[in-house]
Amino acid sequence: LFAALALLASAAADASPALVFEPYNGTVFYAEDPDTLWFPASLTKMMTAYVAFHALRNGEVKPDTPAIVTKNALAEPPTKLGLPVGTSIPLETAIRVIIVKSANDVAVMVAETVGGSEEAFIDRMNEAAKRLGMTSTQFANPHGLPNEQQYTTARDLARLARALIIEFPEYADIFKMKSVAVGKRQLRTHNGLLRTFNGADGMKTGFICDSGFNIV
Predict the structure, then answer these.
(1) pTM, to two decimals
(2) Whole-angstrom distance, CA of residue 216 vs CA of residue 210
């Protein structure tokens, strides 16, 4: 049995949207307020990865395409990688870093590399959301830092998780990585379930004060 959990869990007692489903046939086993609007926090980076995967498949970019640190990227607050402006890492490494380390500066680097600009990439994110039937989702940045114009639901995140699992099985290992190397640095995952819950193989965590701790 392959099951996936799209959980938006707040510290508040009055809201904990959740959806438990089977990704291959879409069967829903459990749902609690799955259509409640929620700030996605760093779960946003799942869509950033999804758009980047499409660009790789379409040949727009390559795994070794340099993702360059710009002033715009470096200006993002932590969590971040913090490389100097003008340096770069391969795009494939950058995607791993946004999933494992959830680095906000690297999410912008991926967006600028794939989309040409952060704004153009955000347009792609929203186009992809529409294509996937994520009717209660809107993206305003590629990392998930607080923005009133960025929201989603547990049901929509389930649609995104299902698309990642079914459309891009070749990238499944990225979501279960417990660490990623960048130069001599070894970056550990924020996803404690990968270390403590037998059988967990992904997918992404996120936290901002307005939505609490979240996980898919």
Answers:
(1) 0.94
(2) 17
CA-to-CA distance for 23 and 168, rounded, in angstroms?
13
Distance from C-alpha of 215 to C-alpha of 207, rounded to nearest angstrom = 9
Dihedral of CA atoms 67, 160, 129, 170 in degrees, nearest 10, equals: 40
Catalytic residue from among 42, 101, 204, 211? 42
Catalytic residue check, 179: no
pLDDT at 16: 82
Residue 108's SS3 state is: helix
- Identify the segments of the chain with pLDDT beneath 50: 1-2, 10-13
- CA 178-66-76 angle, to 5 degrees, is 65
Structure-token pair, residue 120: 């153009």
Q: Is 211 a catalytic residue?
A: no
